[in-house]
Amino acid sequence: MNNVKKFSPLGRRLMINTLSFISAILLLLLITLGVAVHNYYYNGVSETVSRYAQSFETLSVESVANYAASARRLAETFTMKSGVEIQFIDRHGEVIVSTSGFLPAEGEPYGDYAAALNGDGNGSWTGRLSSGEKVMSVCTILPDYGNGSNGAVRCVTSLTRVDRSIRIILYIAAAVGLVVLVMAYMVGKYFIQSIVRPLHDVGNVTRQIAGGDFKSRLEVKEFNEIGELCDSINYMAGELESTEKLKNEFISSVSHELRTPLTAIKGWGETVRGSVYTDHALVTKGIDVILRESERLSGLVEELLDFSRMQSGRMVYKMERLDILAELGEAVCIYEETAKQAGVTLVYHEPETLPAIIGDSNRLTQVFVNIIDNAIKYNHEGGVVQIRAVAEDGYVKITVTDSGVGIPDADLDKVKDKFYKANYSVRGSGIGLAVADEIVRSHQGLLTVESSEGIGTTVTVALPVAEHAVIEQPEETRDDHGA
Asked: All domains of the chain, ordered by start, with CATH?
């Protein structure tokens, strides 16, 4: 991609940080190497020159009269004149003989001689002569064996070649460091681009998804953290696409569900208005239809409000100790007439007693109403809905079993999802079971669905008995209808 050939701000920052760190390490290594090489060479020169100086200590046994002649003889026979200059100093501190054949110019520094006099008889000095040449000199005071010291021996060597050798080593090290830095840049560029380019693609695709294009997907090229991120985004896009589809179907379904009772109310309202003085039976029938459809409309709106509260976390419960049989019996009573009208037999196997539970009576009634309503809606004429309640393993378990159309295996794990409807030809918003599942989980219970297509469905609600329930009472309670 042309727009990622140059470094992005993240890539530039990574590259600067990486190169800065490597440069600092290389500079530290170069300084350490320079100090080590300098010390190695200079210490070697110092030891060599010191050995030369100490090798002339035999002059200490010479008499003062023979000292100059012996020194001159040794200077003439010295074989390392090209590398080291030997200077013989008398007891007055004057250079009397030099292997170079020339005496040092007046005013030349003698730091090593002064150090030897003031110390233990040995001194060294590194510096520049008046000519500008850098040298190292080592001076040894000749021992006094009873005839008085004859003076000292001073060895001087140039450091020009030593410094040149050190510079060459440092130049080579710097060149190697530069090569390492260039290689680090190239390798870093490759790795940074391998990270930044997928992130750039991720940014583009996420923007497309944010814009509503839920079909956009990322190509997973590598099985690493970036690949896992791409997989996660692709999974998110798939879930958003499914949710968007369900949402659109939900809106369509709810629109239909709202329109049907409104149409009936409007139509029968007009009919009643025209027959109010002429046909009393028709007016009574119309009012019954209007009331029934109004109740249906109210229930649908309440279901939507409950879903909204659930989504926003504003679902409030009034927890208390209660007999679950009362709520279950109320739900069964509500749907007895509805079941008869649908040609479905509603069988309630009512137990004599059940342990008490901790819960919100209105919300639990709502759960049972939703489940029984679904069992009747998805049943067929002549079908049966059986309701049982038992106490088992510290739970009160309520099962609602129908002999209806059942749910395909592929859709069974989706029935509790928001907006999902197994059959869009059947009335309902598709959120009743999602709300019921949320209410049950808030009671530390479990709602499960088992189904076989064409045979029927069993919904089980398991709620902990009061001795096992650990549910805190909310600090504040609100009127859910006004929330």
From this structure: 55-158 (3.30.450.20), 225-301 (1.10.287.130), 315-482 (3.30.565.10)
